[in-house]
Specification:
alpha/beta, 9-stranded mixed beta sheet, 317 residues
Length: 317
Amino acid sequence: MMYVKGNHVHKGKASVEGGGNGASRLLDTSVVFIGAGNLATNLAKAMHAKGYRIRQVYSRTEASARTLAQAVGAAYTNDLAAVVNDAGLYISALKDDVLQELIPQMVNGREKALWVHTAGSLPMRVWYGAAERYGVLYPLQTFSKQREVDFAEIPIFIEARREADLRFLHELAGSLSHAVYEADSETRKALHLSAVFACNFTNHLYALAEALLKRYGLPFKVLLPLIDETARKVHELAPHEAQTGPAVRGDERVMELHEEMLADDERLGLFYSILSASIYDDAHPEPLADDAENEVGDDFNEKDINCGLPVIDIEDL
């Protein structure tokens, strides 16, 4: 089952450390961060700015733990055994494989606290059998330690085993963001996959474009107005409506010129061909089989639908 449940933030009673309710009780909950990477740094700072009591930060790297702890007024440790055992909320922001490896050691002696991870690709059930109370707090955004983001605009997707803990996570996430959604593990996986295409792959293409510019002695900043406008357009237009460039037009002359310029770089040439073919196919879907003859006429040939691009064999990928 996949679901995303609206962005209404529950305002009912919520308590993680027993008794009490409301905003003051929410802020009184002591929080421990397991991990001090990009996401943990931004989330901990955002929570600290809202008045949450960040009690401790753990990281395998002492310098990372210390840096984040100092920013949020917390203690720090690089020894998992030294993590306090009486906090109300433990937020794990570790790499997926590291989290799964450390769960038994992390939770041992702290089973009654609320444990959440921040991963889009891991199911909530990774906590099953270790923690009694657990959930997920997944902010859908790209994070870097060097750049703070506005959490108010970040969609946060939550899930919890118990209803009371789900209400608590609703209140916590709602204090940080205007957009809070309940989403199960299958939905989060789909969100994460989409985000990889929209963010990670896009940024990699920026890096490739920067390398191309350097070949010709040009700075990356000349592309920034183009990048900014491309991002702004999809706030108003569907992505397929905003698509421009030689591939969507089927401009074979320009594409052939580009391929010649990339002849000495097999990888970039392959990327160019695959992406151009994908763009063209999306803009010019093949007609239904019953109408194919009427649509393409007597001069139909393979080149018409491939836009003059080479057919990519899956074994080449």
